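Lecture 7, part B: from sequences to assemblies.

Below are the input chains for today's worked example.
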Amino acid sequence: METIVKGMEGVEQAAEIIKNGGLVAFPTETVYGLGGNALDPEASRKIYAAKGRPSDNPLIVHVSSISEVHPLVSVLPEAAEKLMEAFWPGPLTIILPKSEIVPYETTGGLETVAIRCPENKVTLSFIKTSGLPIAGPSANTSGKPSPTEATHVLHDLNGKIDMILDDGPVGIGVESTIVDMSGTVPTLLRPGAITVEDLSETLGRKVEIDPAIVAGGVNEGVRPKAPGMKYRHYAPNAKMALVSTKLLKAKDYEVSEEERLQADRQVSDFINELVEKDEAAGLRTGIICCEETKELYRKVRDNASDIKVIGHRDQPLSMTHELFRVLREFDDDNVDRIYAESYSDRGVGFALMNRMRKAAGMTEFLADE
Ligand code: TXA
Ligand code: MG
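Predicted structure of the full complex, as structure tokens:
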């Protein structure tokens, strides 16, 4: 069993482990990461092994300041620096052409490197103290929801890593925004808490969206530029489906009060019916809904955890904060089927819905069809 240390107290020991080629799980504002020396191919190999992750899926390199970026890249475009100044430390990962010191083991064989400066004081101090860039994917078993608490890391990686730096539950709950600044056109590769509108505003130009984000995976013949986005991801053990209505989708969730009430009724009726059928067939079911709709769902089992409220639908950050924890709870509860409401893609909602669609393998039912 590894050492788990709360707060700043573990920083020295964690830095020592990194310098000696070991692995340390660390907190960030998005999700927990699994860190190793980004300049050491052997450490990167250990990370892939611990996660059970395919080694063509590159790692994010974490730094504690903008000045630490220079040795890692062959060019640093002014626009990329602008983004660093505007959003770091924070939930933004920037792809740039790599320098020679970054090994291909860390970049999954690519000529580019993903870099981010996370906003967490324990981790910033840990990176600084180690004096090294820290390669860190999310600290989950490959394919599982990313860890938002130290206990999730322990659940997935117990015995496979040297230490966990514990700083309590994370704030945002979904992984950082990834923007590719290595080419001529800034391109969003993964949506996160920093929105494409935020990026465009800072850059003063349009930011493209990698078509694979919207398509949701490689199965539709679109190859994502972030290799990690092609894998089945964030997946609970249960089969999951989203439920919306034609009207909500047609109006992009901007509906009148009356239409809203009707859609809520249609979605909840649809889900309640599916749940009833499944439970009658001996399946265990779970529902994901929001504060605004929770009263519309019927309890089928006398189990407080079968209906999960993930937050307020007008505040997507309240929902990103809960999503992965809730998916893990359904796993612990051995749920076979999860039915979740769909929400708007606006703003941070794009990141929330991206993760929910992936968790559901892109399955979405329309309740008014
Ligand atoms: O919030 C986060 O970004 C968290 C915390 C720990 O910082 N990290 C994280 O790492 O989510 P990971 O490994 O789970 O996701 C990294 C994503 C993958 O989809 C990967 O394919 C993509 O970043 N990526 C990394 N390097 C890349 C590169 N050079 N070009 C394109 N995509 C890259
Ligand atoms: Mg991950």
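Note for the exam: The first strand starts at residue 3 and ends at 6. Keep this in mind when comparing with the next example.
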